[in-house]
């Protein structure tokens, strides 16, 4: 209200300078009934415009926040209002028989028994993959009652990373700017695969239990963990008939989201190209070439808060960052961050210092073995730039106090976000 008060004070001073009473009254009436009314209306409209601009600039970040985590299968609540399994099949214990294992091994293929999480640092996992180690395991059977020694191997699981890649393409198809999803747990998921069976197994045995012997890795192999996120898939019907658009080629389809919540963000999926998707009040409006009403596959990014009684053994990680107005404006118009202070402010805006605290950066010709991070956007292909010719931007982090086994993965998320801002460099990170 500072501007309007200043204007009123100027008018009062001007009135005092008028000599005759009649002129004072006429001038005061003119100011109050015409000028001030117009000024106050303009001030109100300007304030509303400012709020609309700020809301528009914050739209893609605030509404499309993605959270990821893992939870023990037996602890997952199917009525949970926020977090859902990335793969619904994970809710069921994997079922298989000895005949299936035997058939795969005889065909020269490895049989996947189950998915596990490796609770260890990224560099330790990379050493495991390079060694291509095999481990002993014992299958206990009831018919006949006997123990069979087998050999197994751990392989990286990529099923969940493919879901993140699919989500990226959904963002692009729906016209939503992509922001890296913070997914440290997905790079620690592994498959236990049977490589060898002993002689004498005929496939009729009944499996009672399996004991694994992972040696030095025994303490880091965690079974029965389910990757979760705040996204779920729905199948929703169109409301009424599609409305033709002005180009006489496209149609607008309306979908009610009242039952699921207007505070959430929605992404539509379809085989045909979606031209746009808009959310207004309790409806989604999809513009597409499809002429007839149909069911739409819709992904809901849920923005509700956890209940106080919700508990997770491992931290739930998100990709949100705090931004001021200037940063939102820069992002809106694709303006690059070019100063040291702005780079540091951008990184610290994620609030992840408890895991990896940014310290400094280096410009290098080659990483020379210093890079300890990976890209969390491997599905984004850059077919133009030759990374061999790019200079290297190395971000240096100090290890935080929380979850040492996640710190290089958290640093990888930050580096992946910085990479989007600095395409002229190949970005990497290390813990110092």
Mean pLDDT: 86
The amount of beta strand, in percent, is: 25-35%
Oligomer: single chain
Total helices: the number is 8
Radius of gyration: 29 Å
Low-confidence stretches are none
Following the backbone from N to C, one meets helices and strands in this order, namely HHEEHEHEEHEEEEEEEEEEEEHHEEHE
| The number of domains | 4
Record field, number of beta strands:
20
Considering DSSP H and I runs of 4 or more, what fraction of the residues is helical?
25-40%
Strand neighbour order, sheet with most strands: 7-4-5-6-3-8
Q: What structural class results from the helix and strand content?
A: alpha+beta
Largest sheet: 6 strands, antiparallel
Distance between the termini: 50 Å
The gross shape turns out to be elongated
Describe it.
The structure is a single chain. The model has no long low-confidence stretch (mean pLDDT 86). The protein has a six-stranded antiparallel beta sheet with strand order 7-4-5-6-3-8. Strands 2-9-1-17 form a four-stranded antiparallel beta sheet, with no helix packed on it. Strands 11-12-15-14 form a four-stranded antiparallel beta sheet, with no helix packed on it. The protein has helices at residues 2-16, 21-63, 98-106, 122-131, 159-173, 325-332, 340-348, 407-421; strands at 67-72, 84-85, 111-118, 134-143, 145-156, 189-196, 206-213, 221-223, 225-229, 231-237, 239-244, 251-256, 265-269, 274-280, 283-288, 295-301, 317-318, 356-364, 391-399, 425-431. Helix 1 runs antiparallel to helix 2. Helix content is 29%, strand content 31%. It has four domains: 2-63; 67-164 and 178-228, no CATH class; 231-301; 321-431, no CATH class. The protein is built from eight helices and 20 strands. The two termini are 50 Å apart. The protein is elongated. With 432 residues, the chain is of the alpha+beta class.
């Amino acid at each position: 209200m500072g501007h309007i008060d200043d204007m009123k004070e100027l008018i009062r001073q001007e009135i005092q300078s008028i000599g005759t009473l009649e002129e004072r009254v006429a001038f005061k009436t003119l100011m109050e009934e015409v000028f001030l009314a117009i000024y106050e209306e303009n001030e109100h409209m300007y304030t509303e415009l400012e709020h609309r601009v700020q809301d528009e600039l914050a739209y893609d970040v605030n509404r499309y926040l993605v959270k990821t985590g893992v939870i023990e299968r037996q602890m997952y609540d199917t009525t949970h209002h926020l977090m859902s399994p990335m793969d619904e099949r994970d809710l069921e214990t994997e079922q298989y028989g000895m005949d299936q294992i035997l058939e795969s091994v005889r065909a020269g293929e490895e049989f996947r028994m189950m998915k596990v999480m490796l609770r260890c640092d990224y560099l330790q996992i990379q050493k495991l993959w390079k060694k291509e180690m095999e481990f002993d395991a014992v299958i206990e059977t009831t018919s006949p009652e006997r123990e069979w020694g087998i050999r197994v191997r751990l392989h990286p699981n990529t099923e969940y990373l493919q879901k993140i890649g699919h989500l990226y393409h959904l963002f692009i198809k729906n016209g939503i700017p992509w922001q890296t999803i913070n997914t440290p747990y997905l790079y620690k998921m592994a498959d236990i695969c049977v490589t060898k069976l002993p002689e004498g197994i005929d496939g009729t045995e009944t499996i009672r239990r399996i004991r694994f012997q992972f040696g030095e890795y025994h303490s880091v192999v965690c079974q029965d963990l389910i990757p979760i996120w705040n996204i779920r898939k729905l199948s929703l019907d169109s409301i009424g008939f599609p409305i033709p658009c002005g180009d006489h080629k496209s149609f607008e389809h309306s979908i009610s989201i009242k039952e699921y919540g207007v505070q959430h963000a929605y992404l539509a999926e379809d085989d045909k190209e979606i031209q746009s998707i808009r959310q207004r009040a309790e409806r989604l409006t999809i513009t597409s070439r499809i002429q007839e009403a149909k069911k739409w596959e819709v992904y809901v990014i849920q923005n509700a808060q956890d209940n106080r009684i919700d508990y997770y053994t491992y931290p739930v990680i998100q990709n949100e960052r705090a931004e001021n107005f200037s940063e939102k404006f820069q992002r809106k118009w694709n303006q690059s961050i070019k100063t040291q202070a702005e780079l540091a402010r951008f990184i610290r805006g994620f609030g992840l210092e408890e895991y990896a605290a940014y310290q400094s950066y280096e410009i290098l010709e080659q990483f020379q073995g210093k890079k300890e991070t990976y890209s969390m956007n491997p599905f984004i292909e850059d077919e133009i730039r030759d990374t061999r010719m790019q200079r290297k931007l190395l971000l240096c982090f100090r290890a935080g106090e929380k979850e040492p086994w996640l710190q290089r993965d958290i640093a990888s998320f930050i580096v992946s976000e910085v990479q989007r801002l600095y395409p002229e460099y190949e970005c990497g990170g290390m813990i110092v």
